[in-house]
Design brief:
Blueprint (H helix, E strand, L loop, with lengths): L3 E12 L6 E14 L2 E9 L6 E9 L2 E8 L3 E6 L2 E9 L2 E16 L4 E11 L2 E14 L7
Antiparallel strand pairs: 1-2, 1-10, 2-3, 3-4, 4-5, 5-6, 7-8, 8-9, 9-10
Amino acid sequence: MEKEVLLALKGLQFAMDEEGAQALETITPAEYYKKNDSHYIIYDEVTEGFQDTTKNIIKFTGSQMEVTKKGLVNVHMIFEQNKKNMTSYATPFGNILIGIDTDAVKIEEGKDAIKVNVEYSLEANYEHMADCKIEMKIRPREEGFDL
């Protein structure tokens, strides 16, 4: 896979007290590399209303994915299949203790694309907030995505 890639990232949250799902979808340029059987995706994220950006590093291998954010938002989230992990999510508005109870991490590696799907339950301050899914697709930049 090429170093310069496009990352299509889709997140779905199924809140317990609402009908339907809340979806977030973005396509962004990113850098990709593989080291010691681990895949790495690096990209910058802009948050509306703020000048500072957040550097995102996504690492995945086997049945585990890690997301590290540094900048405007700071967090290190670990998604391990059949395991619950706790972390502090630092935002400009304060810190939140979050729990990530991961049901599944699936990685499909093809010649010109990688797909990663993660299913997990999200807690904030020990209270269940939502059941969530993350879908990532990584492809070389010149190939683009069909929208």
